[in-house]
Design a protein that fits this description.
The complex is a heterodimer of chains A (381) and B (402).
Chain A lengths: L1 E2 L10 H13 L9 H20 L7 E4 L2 H15 L6 E5 L4 H12 L3 E5 L9 H5 L6 E7 L11 H8 L6 E5 L18 E5 L10 E5 L25 H37 L4 E3 L10 E6 L4 H10 L2 E2 L5 H4 L6 H5 L4 H5 L1 E5 L6 H23 L1
Helix pairs in contact in A: 1-7, 2-7, 3-4, 7-12
Chain B lengths: L4 E5 L10 H15 L7 E4 L3 E5 L5 H8 L5 E10 L3 H15 L5 E8 L8 H15 L4 E2 L6 E7 L4 E4 L3 E5 L8 E5 L5 H11 L3 E8 L6 H14 L6 E7 L1 H10 L2 H23 L3 E3 L12 H8 L6 E2 L7 H10 L3 H4 L6 H4 L11 H8 L4 H10 L2 E5 L15
Parallel strand pairs in B: 5-6, 5-7, 10-11, 10-13, 11-12, 13-14
Antiparallel strand pairs in B: 1-3, 1-4, 2-3, 4-8, 4-9, 7-8, 12-15
Helix pairs in contact in B: 3-4, 7-8, 8-9, 8-14
Classes of the chains: A alpha/beta (381), B alpha/beta (402).
């Protein structure tokens, strides 16, 4: 099997599963319980928080545990919107956000907020100027994705954050889900107030995630309840999941050190391997893109057909974002970049992780070429 | 061009006389320890300033660490250049270009301790100002409020060029002024009091009163976590944990309820004093702030303080709670302190403690029972733990989980 859908989810590391199992079995206490068993669980949770904070270069008290990217994104966007609604109801985001931002914005629109969706240029980039042009007196939040989940473009977060420093009352949220462990980002330096990560995108478990909330930033909680996580996220903490996530994050950072070159080379081979195929149009730009995502369209072929054909060869790729792929809609990111409808409907995403080898990439490139050739012949008849 | 050194200015140490070298040496050691993760640096301590030679290490990262070290008034990343006008001009321009951003203004500040140098300060100002203006487009001079202040200092051995002066933490080098025992409860105030004492050069050790099962392991852990934050200042922190249950039970039995608080404090002070003596300390530090709680009225402090003649340092005595909380946030102890576990100051609080206890009365109540024996036992049973800074902590107990 060659698994090339790592932006949808990654395979949990064995060691991460072991931690999850051990914590679930031996340290099952509720961290809010006063007794010793509760104390152990609380200590583990603190240790997980401290490790995640250290790895992301922030304070441990700035890490809030959640159930994943969707929850973190919703909490950030709605939490700020609700808490600061007296000051303004204008929010700026981009038209290439993940569904968990986009749909949260749509919901806020129905509650009387005004959302500006900034469009990317033809290559998929959002400039700081294009955001600055939309800034208003009643703007309270800017939310921008770091690495786009569909095409892999890296947005100039630091430039946007630097520009936003001129607007001290505006909060800056960054969806860091695809970037974490793959493309470094220093939250403090980039002036980021809130940032989302998701455990299962870096070999942790599903149902785990975190939101970085810079010291001093306040938001309204989405869940009311027992006031866990500094009252911002009630609900008994998923201790085993968070310990596992902290471990996955550490291992991912270590893997990056050892294997980034290998992954970059694999991507290079893949890209050069399919560039020659005349039916293929590559959408991922050459510069300022993440090292693990490649997006392309195959002229005249339905994306789903291609995914299944590759699956038969035991190679797993994806039609754009997994979270919306079942809707059969064209990629919104590609449409926003100005890619024609039919091309956007036939888009394929290949996403790597550090364990993918150059050999796998070569096999995959070859398989893609053969599959395209074979399917095109069938379709033409 | 990269900075090749950081110039450190001493501030208050400079006012010292014959013992100045002791302070400088302490500061050098503290800096060396704080920069343990930068193995290539070398430190040259001189009489009125210190140079940290970077030898390729990252000046920004080191700067972040230096900001927290007591005894440093300010510091500037700098480049050392031969006292040759052309070389100095090249270096100045290169450094300037590296940090300059469009539309920023600048000025030159020259300093010349080597009076044999061919230009005087005005000469240096105009010569270098002119050189930079000629070579950088759209640049303006602003001598009052410049964005960049390019400092050119001519000393005997060389010229130094720097562009920023960063404020240090002030104070005196930690552990340069003798030892004090900090009564550490787990609340917001006492860690702040400890930190401020360290700022004036005290070496601080913590004393915590532990009363299981009335107070829990988690309350003790909280104090350990706080101590690990205080350990950041000079690399370690000693914490004494006093077994206090028996004494609290005895007080509860012997002393009328509205005086238990006063007696408890008096005995805590006696125990702390005994530990201080054993450890060779010369002071006791508390987080008391006037009027904050019943034990911190002037009458209370008068009645409590009677048990010892040892100097009691109360850095927070005139501070407001909000000021204290600001510092707690700054030193990162606030969020630990607000964890909601019972400590011995909250469990045994009487319903209505005397805010104006009478000394004669408390002496009389205590005279019916021999607390001395219990105090000795508590001092002997005290556990001493040596803690490492939180930032260097290795969580090895369950390490394989992480």
């Amino acid at each position: 099997m060659i698994y090339l859908d790592n932006s949808a989810t990654t395979k949990p590391y064995k060691e991460v599963l072991n931690s999850f199992l051990k914590v679930s079995e031996e340290f099952f206490g509720n961290p809010s319980s006063l007794h010793k068993i509760g104390g152990q669980a609380e200590k583990l949770l603190q240790q997980a928080r401290s490790q995640v904070g250290k790895l992301l270069n922030v304070k441990e008290t700035e890490i809030l545990f959640t159930s994943g990217g969707t929850e973190s994104n919703n909490l950030a966007v709605k939490g700020i919107a609700m808490d600061h609604r007296e000051r303004g109801r204008h929010i700026i985001t981009t038209s290439i956000e993940h569904a968990s931002i986009h749909n949260a914005m749509v919901q806020l629109e129905s509650l009387g907020y005004e959302i500006t969706y900034v469009k990317p240029d033809r290559n998929g980039f959002i400039s700081a100027e294009s955001i600055q042009r939309e800034m208003r007196n009643d703007t309270i939040l800017v939310s921008v994705i770091h690495v786009n989940n569909e095409v892999g473009t890296i947005q100039p977060i630091k430039e946007i954050g630097t520009m936003l420093k001129k607007y001290p009352k505006v909060f800056f949220h960054v969806d860091f889900v695809q970037g974490v462990g793959k493309v470094p980002l220093n939250f403090y330096e980039a002036g980021v107030h809130l940032s989302t990560i998701s455990g299962y995108k870096f070999h942790g478990l599903k149902g785990t995630g975190a939101l970085f909330i810079k010291e001093g930033v306040h938001l309204s909680p989405l869940f009311s309840g027992g006031n866990q996580e500094w009252k911002q996220r009630s609900g008994t903490e998923n201790v085993a999941g968070m310990v596992a996530m902290a471990k996955a994050l550490r291992m991912t950072f270590e893997q990056r050190k050892e294997k980034l070159n290998q992954m970059e080379e694999a991507m290079e081979r893949l890209r050069s391997g399919i560039t020659e195929i005349k039916e293929i149009i590559i959408h991922t730009p050459i510069k300022n893109r993440a090292p693990h995502i490649l997006n392309f369209s195959i002229k005249g072929l339905k994306a789903e057909t291609f995914v299944h054909a590759m699956g038969k060869r035991n190679i797993y790729v994806s039609t754009t974002s997994a979270c919306s792929s079942k809707k059969k809609a064209a990629s919104t990111t590609l449409l926003a970049m100005g890619v024609p409808q039919d091309e956007a409907e036939s888009a394929i995403r290949v996403s790597l992780t550090f364990s993918n080898t150059v050999e796998e990439a070569e096999l995959a490139a070859k398989a893609i070429a053969e599959t395209v050739k074979h399917l095109s012949e069938v379709v033409k008849k | 061009m990269m900075y090749d050194r950081i110039l450190v200015r001493y501030g208050e140490i400079s006012t010292k006389g014959r013992n100045r070298n002791k302070f400088i040496d302490r500061l050098r050691k503290n800096i060396k320890r704080a920069l343990i993760n930068y193995p290539n640096i070398t430190i040259k301590a001189e009489r009125d300033r210190m140079f940290i030679l970077l030898n390729g290490e990252d000046s920004d990262g080191i700067g972040e660490k230096l900001k927290e070290i007591f005894g440093i008034q300010s510091f500037s990343p700098a480049v050392k250049v031969e006292k040759d006008l052309d070389k100095m001009k090249d270096a100045s321009l290169e450094l300037f270009r590296k940090i300059h951003k469009p539309e920023q203004t600048f000025k030159i500040t020259a300093k010349r301790s080597d009076k044999t140098f061919e230009l005087d300060t005005n000469g240096i100002n105009s010569e270098f100002g002119g050189h930079i203006l000629r070579n950088v487009d759209n640049l303006k001079v602003d001598v009052r409020n410049p964005d960049i202040n390019l400092q050119i200092e001519i000393r005997k051995e060389a010229a130094y060029i720097s562009a920023e002066t960063i404020s240090g933490a002030g104070g005196l080098p930690a552990a340069s002024a003798g030892k004090g025992m900090l009564m550490l409860s787990g609340g917001i105030d006492s860690p702040v009091a400890g930190y401020l004492s360290m700022k004036r050069g005290l070496e601080v050790e913590g004393v915590h009163f532990f009363s299981p099962p009335f107070t829990s392991e988690r309350a003790k852990q909280k104090v350990i976590d706080l101590s690990e934050k205080l350990a950041e200042v000079y690399g370690h922190f000693v914490l004494h944990i006093v077994p206090f249950t028996e004494i609290q039970q005895a007080i509860h039995k012997q002393i009328p309820e509205n005086y238990t608080m006063t007696t408890t404090r008096r005995i805590m002070l006696r125990i702390t004093d005994a530990i201080r003596e054993k450890q060779g300390g010369l002071a006791i530090i508390t987080g008391e702030s006037l009027g904050q709680v019943a034990s911190q009225t002037l009458e209370s402090m008068y009645a409590i303080n009677e048990v010892t003649a040892t100097p009691i340092i109360r850095p927070l005595i005139t501070m407001d709670k909000l000021q204290i909380m600001d510092i707690a946030h700054h030193i990162d102890t606030h969020d630990i302190s607000i964890r909601p576990y019972e400590d011995c100051c909250t469990v045994f609080v009487p319903a209505s403690p005397k805010t104006k206890p009478k000394l004669e009365k408390v002496q009389k109540y205590e005279s019916f029972f021999d607390f001395e024996e219990l105090i000795q036992k508590a001092v002997e049973g005290t556990e001493r733990i040596l803690l490492q800074p939180a930032s260097e902590r290795k969580d090895d107990t369950l390490g394989d989980l992480f």
